[in-house]
C-alpha cells in the first residue's frame, strides 16, 4: 500500500514578512485612506524577494509499469500470431480476424494508460523509476494498434476486391 499524502514544507516559512514596510504598516490592511494608485487592494507589495509558493509533487500512487509492460508484450505477441496465422491458415481466418479485434480492445487501453502514466511521471506525480518499462509497454501497444488497424484495412480491402 502506498504512503498517505504528506503536504510539502512551505519554502516561504521563516522568511521576512513581505507585507509589512519599514514603518510596520501593512499596505494590504483595510483602511479608508486610499490614493488613486492604491485603488486595487490586491496588488502585490512590489517586493519580489520572496518567490511564490510552488508545492512539489510527492508520488502518492503506485505506477502501473508492470501492467503496461505485460499487456504491451501480450498484445504484441497475440497480434503477431493472429496476423501471421490469418495468411497461413485459411481454415480459421475468421477466428484470427476476431482475435485481432480483441487484441485491439486490449492494446488501445494499454496505450492510453501508458501515455497517462508517462505524463504523470514527467510531471512528478509518479515515481520515475518505472519510466523505461512504461515507455516500452506503451510503444509496444502503439505498434500493435497501428499494425492491427493497417491489417484490418488490408483485409477489408481484399474483401471488397473479392466481390468485384
Low-confidence stretches: none
Beta-strand share of residues: under 5%
The proportion of residues forming helix, as a percent range, comes to 40-55%
Total number of strands: 0
Mean pLDDT: 79
Q: Count up the helices.
A: 3
Order of helices and strands: HHH
Which word captures the global form?
Answer: elongated
Major β-sheet annotation: none
Q: How much is the radius of gyration in Å?
A: 29 Å
What does this structure look like?
With 164 residues, this protein is mostly helical. It has a domain at 65-163. The chain has 3 helices and no strands. Helix 1 runs antiparallel to helix 2, helix 1 (65-88) runs parallel beside helix 3 and helix 2 packs antiparallel against helix 3. It is elongated, with a radius of gyration of 29 Å. The model has no long low-confidence stretch (mean pLDDT 79).
Write a compact overview of the structure shown:
This protein is an all-alpha fold. Helix content is 54%, strand content 0%.
What are the key terms here?
164 residues, mainly alpha, elongated
Amino acid at each position: 500500500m502506498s504512503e498517505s499524502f504528506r503536504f510539502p514544507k512551505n519554502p516561504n516559512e521563516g522568511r521576512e514578512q513581505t507585507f509589512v514596510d519599514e514603518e510596520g504598516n501593512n499596505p494590504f490592511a483595510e483602511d479608508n485612506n486610499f490614493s488613486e494608485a492604491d485603488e486595487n487592494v490586491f496588488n502585490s507589495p512590489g517586493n519580489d524577494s520572496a518567490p511564490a509558493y510552488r508545492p512539489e509533487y510527492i508520488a502518492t500512487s503506485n505506477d502501473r509499469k508492470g501492467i503496461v509492460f505485460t499487456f504491451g508484450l501480450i498484445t504484441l505477441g497475440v497480434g503477431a500470431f493472429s496476423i501471421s496465422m490469418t495468411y497461413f491458415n485459411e481454415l480459421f481466418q475468421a477466428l484470427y480476424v476476431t482475435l485481432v479485434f480483441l487484441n485491439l480492445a486490449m492494446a488501445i487501453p494499454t496505450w492510453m494508460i501508458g501515455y497517462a502514466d508517462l505524463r504523470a511521471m514527467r510531471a512528478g506525480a509518479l515515481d520515475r523509476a518505472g519510466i523505461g518499462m512504461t515507455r516500452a509497454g506503451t510503444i509496444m501497444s502503439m505498434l500493435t494498434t497501428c499494425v492491427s488497424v493497417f491489417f484490418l484495412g488490408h483485409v477489408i480491402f481484399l474483401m471488397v476486391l473479392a466481390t468485384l
